[in-house]
Design brief:
By secondary structure, the chain is α+β, with helices and mostly antiparallel strands. The chain has four helices and five strands; from the N terminus they run H-E-E-H-E-H-H-E-E. The chain has helices at residues 8-22, 36-48, 70-78, 85-94; strands spanning 27-29, 32-34, 53-55, 98-104, 111-117. The strands form two sheets. It has a three-stranded antiparallel sheet with strand order 3-5-4. The longest helix is centred in the N-terminal third of the chain and has 15 residues, at 8-22.
Length: 123
């Protein structure tokens, strides 16, 4: 499924917020490079979800071993195997773009960390 692309004004605003906090894009955070591509992909992925929310599985594994959630979707979209959901989620939360919540992992029934795109950033 092709994501509905984020509009330029929304994307520029998100990047400006992050640049103000971190001093520019790209930058390194906890071992990953946070690029405009990662920011855009994460916001678009969350916007595509019906409830604008995905669990974070935080697996530093190949995509084949990563349960469905934000990590899986980022790996799929950016063709990477890096653990990024927890890190980008924390960055977007600090910038006021997402909120970090508890969600139920459908596979285990347990509460896990999740990421929800805030309404003002949805389109």
């Amino acid at each position: 499924m092709k994501s509905k692309a984020i509009s330029d004004p929304v994307f520029i605003s998100a990047c400006k917020r992050i640049e103000e906090l971190y001093g520019g894009i790209p930058f390194k955070e906890r071992g990953i490079t946070v690029s405009s591509e990662l920011i855009k992909a994460t916001i678009e992925i969350l916007n595509d979800e019906t409830n604008k929310t995905l669990p974070q599985n935080c697996r530093n594994q190949t995509i084949e071993k990563t349960p469905y959630g934000l990590d899986y979707k980022i790996k799929e979209r950016l063709n990477t195997n890096l653990r990024t959901a927890n890190i980008i989620s924390d960055i977007l939360h600090k910038a006021g773009i997402v909120t970090v919540i508890d969600v139920i992992n459908p596979a285990t029934g347990r509460n896990v960390k999740g990421t929800k795109l805030l309404q003002e950033w949805c389109w």
